[in-house]
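During the reporting period the student researcher (J.K.) took over the structure-prediction task from the postdoctoral fellow and processed the backlog of single-chain submissions. One of the processed entries is reproduced below for the supervisory committee.
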Amino acid sequence: MDEAYRKQGIFSWSELMTDDVEAATAYYEKVIGWEVERVDMGDMIYHVLKADGNPVGGIMPKPPESKGVPNHWGTYITVDDVDATLALAEANGGKAIYPPMDVPDVGRMCAIMDNTGAVVSVITYAETA
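J.K. obtained the following structure tokens:
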């Protein structure tokens, strides 16, 4: 990932959660021209979308607890500290949609709902060698 996307406040990742990963992947390969790399995450296959070989987003199956939630794109904003950002969100009328979690080789993330009901994810990327 380009270092520019690791800076506080940058929109750095987009992700589609869908009921039909294969259909969505085929659609975006044809319509946008993204290359797709399938990555085995253990409990699922994550589809990394690439433009000119550079990762730009992903497609994943909706988790079981998302039953009834429409297929949707989500965005991630890079922050210096996910936990501190969540604390600020809560102090200003927001709340966690899911608590901070660590994803190996990716980073720490959580989704927050702002004081108007809009949801966005925040992420602090893992250090890379």
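The committee noted the following: The chain has a mean pLDDT of 93.
J.K. will present the remaining backlog at the next meeting.
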